[in-house]
Amino acid sequence: MKKSSFISSVSLSLIIALSSTAAIAAEPAPADNTPQYNISVNGTDTGADALILVPLRSVGEALGFTVEWLPELPGANISDGSIEAELIIGNNVYSYHTTEESGAIGATGPFSLSSAPVMANDSIYVPAELFTVLTGNDPSVMTVTDDGISFNTKEEVQIPSPLTEHDTIESLEKAVSFEIKTPSLPEGYEITLMQSISGKTAEINYSDTASDICFRMALGTGDISGDYNAYPNEYTVSVDGVEIKCSGSELINKAVWENDIFTYSLCSDAGFSEETLSAAVASLM
C-alpha cells in the first residue's frame, strides 16, 4: 500500500455525538486501543465515555481501500486487494480475511470493537480503530488532536498473517490455550495441516483421496467457520441434544454448533453426510 494520509473533516463534537448514540444501541465493550473521551455534566463525571466513529467510505477510500455497499446485509465490503472485511450495520461482530495477493490466505475469528457500524446521514460510520486493525494493528496509524483525526500509513504496510502453522497437537493447544479433542472422521482421512488463527481458533485440516474437511474449535460462541458462501439448503439437526446448524446443497458443506464452553465448525467443499457429522460431533462430547 502506498503511503497515505487522511484527516477527517468531521468535527470531533459530531463524531462524539454519533458515537454516544451507537454505544447505547450496541452496548459494546471498548477495545483496548480505542480513543475515549470522558463525559462530564456541569463538572461532574458521568462515568461514561464517548467513542469515535468515522465515515467508512471517505476514510477507507483515502487509505486505498475499495468500499462496496451491500444492501442485502445491509452493510458493506471493504478491501484493498490483500485484506477484505464484510461489515453488517448494527452488528458488533467483525472479522477479516487475507486474499491470494497477500500470500497468506486465511480468516480471523470474530471480534468486537467499540461499536457496531451505524447509518447516519446516508453514510456508514464505523469505529475509528477498525482502520488500525485493517492496516496492520499499528495504533500509531491514527492520531487524535484538538484539530481532528489523522490517519497515516507507512510505506508498504504489511498485514500480519493471522495464521500460524503447528507440527503437533500439543503445539496447537499451547497457541490457543485450551485442550483440543479431534473429531472422529471416516477411515482414510488424515491430518494435512494444523494451524492457529489469531491465537484464538484451532484449525485442523483433513484429507482423503477424494475430499478435504476443515475442523475449527474456539472458546466462546458464534460462527468461526470462515465459510461465507450462500447455500441453497439451511437446516438444523440434533445429535445427542446438541443443535447443529447445517448448510449445503446435496450434502452438508458447513456445520456449526456450540456447547457451554466451545464453538465448533466442520466444513468441506465436497460435502459430507449427516452420518459423518453425527459421528464427528458425538466423538467430541
Word description of this protein:
The protein contains five helices and 21 strands. The chain is α+β, with helices and mostly antiparallel strands. The strands form five sheets. Strands 14-15-16-17-21-20-19-18 form an eight-stranded antiparallel β-sheet. A five-stranded antiparallel β-sheet has the order 5-6-7-8-9, with helices on one face. The relative contact order is 0.12.
Essential attributes:
eight-stranded antiparallel beta sheet; five-stranded antiparallel beta sheet; 41% strand
Short description:
The protein has helices at about 10-25, 55-60, 130-135, 170-175, 275-285, and strands at about 5, 35-40, 45-50, 55, 65-70, 75-80, 85-90, 95-100, 105, 120, 125, 140-145, 150-155, 165, 190-195, 200-205, 210-220, 235-240, 240-250, 250-260, 260-270. The protein is α+β, with helices and mostly antiparallel strands and about 280 residues long.
